Amino acid sequence: MHITIIGCGYVGLTTAVSLAYMGRCVHVIDQNEERIQMLRRSQPPIHEKGLEELLNQTNGRLTFGTWDSFEIKTDVVIIAVGTPSKENGDADLSYVEAVARELGQRLTPQVCDKSTSAPVIVNKSTVPIGSARRVQSIISQHLKERNIVTSISVASNPEFLREGVALHDTFYPDRIVIGSEDTQAAYTLREMYAPILEQTFSAPEFLPRPENYLLPAFIITSPTSAELIKYAANTFLAMKISYINEIAGLSEKVGADIQEVARGIGLDKRIGSQFLNAGIGWGGSCFPKDVQALIHTGEQYGYAMPLSQSAIDVNYRQREEVIKKLQSALKVLRGRTIGLLGLAFKPGTDDLRDAPAITIAERLIELGVHVKAYDPIAMENCRHIHPNLAIEYVSSSTELVNGIDALILITEWNEFIHLPYKLYGEKMRQKVILDGRNALNSQALRDAGFTYIGVGK
Ligand code: NAD
Ligand code: UDX
């Protein structure tokens, strides 16, 4: 089976590497030549655990190129380009539509059993309802202009991977959802995913099959349901975090400990313990834009979605709370130096899209604070994406703590959990630590003379 994947970001590249590892021939197309050149040298253009190792284990089945290398003999074309937020909260479909136009200008259906057959087009990008139909209509229109008569099938195949553990989630998903009204297309996609659905591949050494892992469910739905499943899933998870953050705020008022409360809640199997970590809230390339896009879809139908809107409001309040807590601990912020431990929106990635670190740094700078920061991998990205943000980047956590008035744990990288905080306290001007992820040992820090501030504790 030959597969073409458009877009070599987190989703496209992870999918490509995984399917090639499992024996499929995969060609990846991206308009970004620099990324293609890097990939040809087996260097991933994004930071994702295990990608580099797997890139070298695909035995020539994985190739890369720009649009000029588009190969018409392909069974499946997977669209995995970005769908960022527009100003009004709607998803920006311009990248997806540009791909549809390219496909309409390049596809030449193959003759097979006297009838023509075109590859199955798959929308893996997160897109609003109706997008599969929209892509189909753009491609068909271009084919018509080229006097090509064939039916094009566009399926929706939402992606549920998390950054940082993207390969793990692709190899061992809970479910694969295909939104298609074309039985043959759904069958082809089932074939494509067979190694994952049946777990017939031999697991890479660094990615063993989890104990008690159950085979993933394969669900065929209408394209509209599949498109909605993705937004509804992300909004639910975002809402779960905002809910625990709201309870964390109340815990602070009444003197409860949110980690005890979350444990007590999460043990109820109907609720579950995951995504109940209170902290400075969610960020990243998906939750913020996807919750917005879901609300926008509601608006288009005159349907208010107050729960989803509240999830956003609570989330941004968490970032503002950090400033209030620092004001309460240090009183005057102007002229202070504050250190940010971590910048990425979560550990395991250098992604800074809608990262709480950026909002917090901007607010502190506005209030006259000198902001220092250290992150093991996201600093380069931060310099590049936010060149005007007046952060002093330092090369280690030891350097970070020198002469600061407060330290904020923003990203709970493993290496930050067991730092020699006691020693660090001696280098800090004031021993104030704000643990934005409730990841540190609060008692040990208090015993070492720190003013420890958590979230909901
Ligand atoms: P990304 O920004 O990391 O990568 C997108 C890639 O597409 C880039 O390399 C870009 O150069 C390329 N591209 C854009 N337009 C193109 C065109 N016309 N032709 C060829 N290449 C083009 O994006 P991502 O994070 O992988 O996300 C892709 C989609 O998947 C989005 O809709 C996103 O919401 C969804 N998604 C992302 C994640 C995640 O964790 N990142 C998880 C699930 C779903
Ligand atoms: C998310 C979804 O989990 C994934 O299924 C989807 O495909 C893409 O969006 P991702 O954004 O990579 O994945 O990260 P995730 O692990 O979900 O974390 C999102 C944000 O929530 C992070 O900022 C993280 O710090 C925060 N979070 C997560 C919490 O604050 N508390 C939690 O309990 C869990």
TrEMBL record:
Enzyme Commission identifier(s): 1.1.1.22
Gene Ontology molecular-function annotations: NAD binding; UDP-glucose 6-dehydrogenase activity
Biological classification of the source: Bacteria, Bacillati, Bacillota, Clostridia, Eubacteriales
Active site: C286
GO biological-process terms attached to the record: polysaccharide biosynthetic process; UDP-glucuronate biosynthetic process
Domain UDP-glucose/GDP-mannose dehydrogenase C-terminal: 339-442
Pathway in which the depicted protein is active: Nucleotide-sugar biosynthesis; UDP-alpha-D-glucuronate biosynthesis; UDP-alpha-D-glucuronate from UDP-alpha-D-glucose: step 1/1
Reaction(s) this enzyme catalyzes, per UniProt: UDP-alpha-D-glucose + 2 NAD(+) + H2O = UDP-alpha-D-glucuronate + 2 NADH + 3 H(+)
Stated name of the protein: UDP-glucose 6-dehydrogenase
Binding site for substrate: F160, L161, R162, E163, K230, F275, L276, N277, A278, G279, G283, K346
Family named by the database record: Belongs to the UDP-glucose/GDP-mannose dehydrogenase family.
Keyword Ligase annotated: no
NCBIfam families for this protein: NDP-sugDHase
Keyword Phosphoprotein: no
The protein's enzyme class: oxidoreductase
Keywords, in A-Z order: NAD, Oxidoreductase
Residues engaged in binding NAD(+): D30, R35, T83, T126, E163, K289, R353
